[in-house]
Design brief:
It contains three helices and nine strands; from the N terminus they run H-H-H-E-E-E-E-E-E-E-E-E. By secondary structure, the chain is α+β, with helices and mostly antiparallel strands.
């Protein structure tokens, strides 16, 4: 037996055990950010540490606006070519004002600049504008992946809880079609499309509301 090889193996085993102990106390983001090279040297390949934002595709049965054929995955209330704007409030729009902010990130926590973020939703009475572009608009994230939307709290309607529709697309990537939900809504439990992973953080800010949600995209 080669004693030098044995010593090398024991040293490697100790280093591996020490590294695993460090992983147990260091936050995942830090491990991936500054410990990736050491992990690679020891033979570890770390998975993405941010789970992608779930898609919320329309149902195929039922009786609401999201019941569509497979081609119409965004719902029949989606209208393409919405205006480029960060505020959906215009003359004739009434309701409780809400400011929604957030960041578009990759699963590795990197901001996605110039990502398309396209919003549409019902008015305070739960009605959609299917003839024009009221409460519809798209924007692009800034260099830090940030977006900001000024709009109103949508109304609920039969079969659905309050929600925002949104399509998010990183440059030259696929489209994420999803919906954002409000916390503490009575209809959340009965809405078959509701997903708690898509809940916004919402708080009162004087006479209006402030909400936040970060989109996580798994890029090809």
């Amino acid at each position: 037996m080669n004693l030098n090889n044995k010593g090398d193996k024991e040293t490697a085993d100790v280093s591996r055990r020490e590294f695993l102990k460090e992983l147990a106390v260091i936050p995942a983001a830090i491990v991936i950010g500054i410990g990736a090279s050491r992990a690679g040297a020891l033979g570890f390949v770390g998975p993405a540490y941010l789970p992608p934002t779930p898609a919320c595709l329309p149902a195929q049965t039922g009786g609401d606006d999201d019941d569509v054929t497979p081609r119409q995955t965004a719902g029949p209330f989606y209208t393409p070519n919405s205006p480029l704007r960060t505020s959906l409030i215009e003359p004739g729009i009434s309701g409780t004002k809400i400011i929604l902010t957030g960041v578009v990130l990759t699963t590795q926590g990197k901001p996605v600049a110039n990502a398309l973020v396209d919003f549409w939703h019902a008015n305070e009475n739960g009605e959609y504008d299917n003839r024009g572009f009221k409460l519809r608009g798209h924007q692009f994230t800034d260099a830090e992946g940030k977006y900001r939307l000024e709009t109103i709290v949508p109304g609920a309607y039969p079969g659905r809880t309050r929600h925002f529709h949104v399509r998010v697309q990183a440059p030259n990537q696929g489209i994420l079609t999803t919906q954002l939900y409000f916390p503490d809504e009575p209809r959340n439990k009965s809405d078959r499309l509701f997903n708690p992973a898509l809940l916004m953080k919402v708080k009162n800010a004087g006479e209006q509301k402030a909400a936040s949600f970060d989109f996580i995209l798994k890029l090809a």
